[in-house]
Design brief:
Blueprint lengths: L10 H8 L3 H9 L7 H14 L5 H8 L4 E6 L5 H16 L3 E6 L4 H13 L5 E3 L8 H7 L3 E3 L10 E5 L1 H14 L5 E5 L5 H16 L9 E3 L4 H12 L6 E4 L2 H13 L9 E4 L4 H5 L5 E4 L2 H13 L7 E4 L2 E3 L17
Parallel strand pairs: 1-2, 1-3, 3-4, 4-5, 5-11, 6-7, 6-8, 8-9, 9-10
Antiparallel strand pairs: 10-12
Helix pairs in contact: 1-2, 1-3, 5-13, 8-9, 10-11
Length: about 350
């Protein structure tokens, strides 16, 4: 036997319970536009509590022109750096009275397109986005008029708002740190070569070597996916040839995969191979050995992204943040006193 449908409580029901008009109920719920006497307000609030009334979000969105939601599309939420950024964005959105709707593309470009399209159809008030590859679905978003902030470097001619760190400079500093240890044979495990951030990180690695009078060896550029498996596979390819003395992994997950591959060959870090990585999270600090890693200011970046959506005026804005090279044990430095607990 099916259960009878429960009728939704309406503002008219609240008005009858409180002995007032529907308009006055609306003024109380929306805090205006007209004032309501304190005693009447208390009766309306008591009626709302008694009946369990919940405002109709869809109707409110139609009336106000805002859904009080933001969309976030990321390549893969399993990546700790991306999940830490998503968490920070959710916190900032909530503080602004918004709900953050997450779209996880699972490293699939077509799924990413469907997620972007779905969020646009839901009329989110703004979209925060980092793409699976170097061809983000920006034209679709721009055609909708939805405010957009990218969490990655995009080509300047696209006229898109973005927040980022200087990844070339960060890669330079990470590689430079290895050089300062005295290492001269330094390889790089990077992302897919066609990606802009991969190109930036290779450029920084190459620049640091050349400034030190070292010749970058193309044979020591190992391109792979930004995953543990990618790092593992790249390290296996590296181990099949002459072993470098140091390695810059351009992603924390790649570094973890590399560590597993090295352990399988009886090699240790940093004794046999020194290692630094990019996009470190709290996981880097708790690893054994702790990883020397470039850290991005995730909380500050998330706060700025939400602020850019709130103040959207259609003009593209680029905001660059400083980064930090957090020293761990994997490069050969002395052990740190304690692991960091937050970004």
């Amino acid at each position: 036997m099916s259960k009878p449908l429960v009728r939704r409580v309406t503002r008219a029901d609240i008005a009858r319970e409180a002995g007032t008009s529907v308009a006055v109920v609306s003024y109380v719920i929306n805090n205006g536009p007209r004032p309501v006497a304190p005693a009447t307000r208390e009766r309306v609030l008591a009626a709302i509590k008694k009946t369990g009334y919940r405002p109709n979000g869809i109707a409110r969105a139609l009336a106000s022109g805002t859904t009080r939601t933001y969309g976030l599309v990321v390549p893969n939420i399993a990546n700790p750096f991306i999940s830490s950024m998503a968490h920070a964005l959710q916190q900032e959105a909530f503080a602004d009275g918004r709900v953050l709707l997450l779209g996880d593309a699972g490293d699939d470009r077509e799924r990413e397109r469907e997620l972007v399209n779905n969020l646009l159809h839901r009329q989110v008030d703004g979209l925060i986005y980092t793409s699976v590859d170097r061809h983000p679905w920006i034209e679709m978003i721009q055609a909708s008029g939805t405010p957009l902030v990218m969490l990655d470097r995009v080509a300047p001619e696209l006229q898109v708002s973005a927040i980022q760190v200087n990844e070339q400079r960060a890669a330079w500093q990470a590689t430079r740190h290895l050089i300062e240890h005295g290492y001269r044979e330094i390889a790089i495990i990077c992302g897919p070569l066609e990606m802009l951030n991969t190109q930036d990180r290779i450029s920084g690695w190459r620049q640091a070597l050349e400034e030190a009078g070292l010749t970058p060896d193309p044979a020591w550029i190992f391109a792979t996916d930004y995953t543990r498996q990618g790092g593992y596979d790249a390290a296996q390819r590296m181990l099949a040839g002459a072993l470098p003395r140091a390695l810059f992994a351009t992603n924390e997950q790649q570094a973890f995969g590399c560590l597993r591959a090295l352990a399988g060959h009886g090699l240790s870090v940093p004794d046999d191979l020194a290692l630094v990585c990019f996009n470190g999270t709290v996981e880097s600090a708790f690893n054994v050995p702790s990883l020397t890693a470039v850290r991005q200011p995730v909380i500050s970046m998330a706060r700025k992204a939400i602020e850019m959506l709130k103040q959207w005026d259609g003009e593209p804005e680029r905001c660059e943040f400083d980064f930090e090279l957090e020293i761990g044990e994997s490069c050969g430095c002395r052990p740190v006193a304690h692991a960091r607990k937050s970004n």
